[in-house]
Please model this.
Amino acid sequence: MSNLTTLEQLLQELHLKGMEKALGPVLANAENSGLSVQEVIYALLLEEKKHRQERSLQYRIKQAKLPYEWTLESFPFQLQPSIDKSRIMGLAGLNFIQRGDNIVLIARPGRGKTGLAIGLMRKALIQGYRSRFYKVQDLLDELYASMADRSTSRLLKRLCNFDLLLLDELGYLTLNQEQMNTFFKLMDERYTKSKSTIITTNLCYEKWYDILQPKSMVDALLDRLKHRCVTISIKGESLRRPTE
Model:
């Protein structure tokens, strides 16, 4: 058995997948370039680090449950001139997460609000932030279901641990008072912990009272949400217009 095979087997047993994959090329480069032992070790460790970072990113993306593979780089800003691209790319620096700020994207259907929200979330995932995407109705249904087995506290704790929560389509809702109570509790706890939330909606803030009750709770919800918040209203035509 060759020394290379022995090393590969040892790295495999130690679950050092990045080093195992890079071992042959790194040793070949070392032989051709006359690298020192320290340089070889550094190169192998660097490959292992890259491998683990990539695995960690793929895990975060899987856990985030993003429905589309959209990015800010692929967003058609040229087709939606009402959106200030420089402002969006400023948010992509993710300082809003460090500050615990929220983002609310308000627009009629098809204007690109979900695409922008997912693009920002993907930036957060790449930078190591734990994030989760939800359709608002799905979240409310999950919160309501948790009451049956008394797991609401555990669910709220898990949701509050995400650095960034994306709640999509607030406006198409069917909810009862118990759901409203748990939704308010979630938003209150995230506010207290300075955790960022992105909300997309087709409703201006005044219209939230049409779908959420009672008024006193909606007042309190908006007070917390808007305290640290970037509100982006998108005008213009639908991006889903048929092409000629």
